[in-house]
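Case study B.
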Amino acid sequence: MNISKLAILANLPVSDDEAKNLDNQFQLTVDFINHLKEIKTNGVTETSQVTGKTNQFREDEITAGLTQDQALQNAPRTNKGFFVSKIKWE
Amino acid sequence: MGINDIKKIDSRIHAFISFNDNADKEKGFPVAVKDNFNTMGIQTSAASNILKGYIPPYDATVVRKLKEAGAVIVGKTNMDAFAHGSSTETSDFGPTSNPWNLDYLPGGSSGGSAAAVASGEVSVAIGSETAGSIRQPAAWCGIVGLKPTYGRVSRYGLISMASSTDSPGTLAATVADAAKIYRIIAGHDPLDASSSQQLLGRPEQVSLKNITIGIPKEYFRSESQKGINDKVMSAARVLEKLGAKIKKISLFDPKFAISVYTIVQRSEVSSNLSRFDGIRFGKTRDFFNQENKRRIMLGTYTLSAGYYDAYYKKAQQVRTIIIEDFARAFSNVNVIIGPTSPSTALKKGSSKDQPLFGELQDIFVEPSSLAGLPAINVPCGFINGLPVGMQIIGPQWSEEKLISVAQTYEENTDWHKNKPKLW
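Model:
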């Protein structure tokens, strides 16, 4: 398992020491969960949710939401009513 | 009890992350709320440094309903950071102590709520359960913990862990109090598309003569701590003496539910925690703790191309088997009784560097959580001064039946009258 690659996929900063630790702990977890292979599941449908509900709809009417100030109030950086994020140039 | 008295007790146990210092001026009944429920104007941190200082601009539906019913929120309780644990010692703000023995853990992830009730700081508290996080701390702290059917209580404003099993619920000193708060917070919410339109049942007085209790042999394991099985069987016998029938049953081995839950939960966690980007709120992702990182990364792995079929899809298929197994059992019995936890509370430090600590502790609660079933923990004894909990599990939407059976047990025993001595 490539911890560094996983860290990139998960968008998580992981130091070299952390990566070593995580590698061992991962292996323990994966070794444990592998016993699910013993169970026959041919033809068994997956359960994604247990209430049997299907898509919920409502009328397409505007309802009250957060004000712009409320939405921005916890942002570390804002600019003229916008969130500020890092720009990635490709 | 005023805020200053609560703070005095809390200096011993650290059940709370923050207090509402205006609580004494507000009129109503006091409630403690786990710190993963958004409370407008009051810090909501999920016990994580990522959200330290985050002040929500809205109330979770559970919080709004409580306020409308006259509750006063006295403070936000400690928990495992982002609910990633069964001990409360992975909180970024320090552990909570079990009021029965301060060297021991209260359980988790709703450990702060459980300790706040057990210590007498409050008589009711709100918790959330993804798999065990209400029942297990209730068992370790010797109180009542009610986990409703998944979809019974709105998750709007609850910081998500595993969206397909997260269930808000109540912790209290008595069954009646847990039930009272449950009836306030339960019910359909249009703001939560997964919340059910199923009508709440009416409070009922169930005659135990109409109740068959299933005792699954797989939940009474020889590996459990000595004494746990006996205490819980004695509790079931109390109900038998009062008229219930006991039937031995066999359930799908819960050891497989550990793996199903490990995969499903971590997969959903990896998705849910991607929203913590440090742009709209909170700090950057390097503020996640080790447990958070472990879980996010394992979930990323089990959902990734080449591994999704072997892990996530497989786990959801085994989940179907677990659900069908319970349905089969409930065609022969009305409720299922077993230990909530394989041990009494463990010492502080027990969860350190144990990647599967929570999942192993929660072996007896994971199957019913994966199936979305309701369950209640009631105290049923002590071993070496630490509480033992019995769980009563029912079919979907059977909360009122569970409450009635639990209430009958409580009325005929004295365990709930014991209180820890903090000084």
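The mean pLDDT of chain B is 96. The remaining cases will be described in the next quarterly update.
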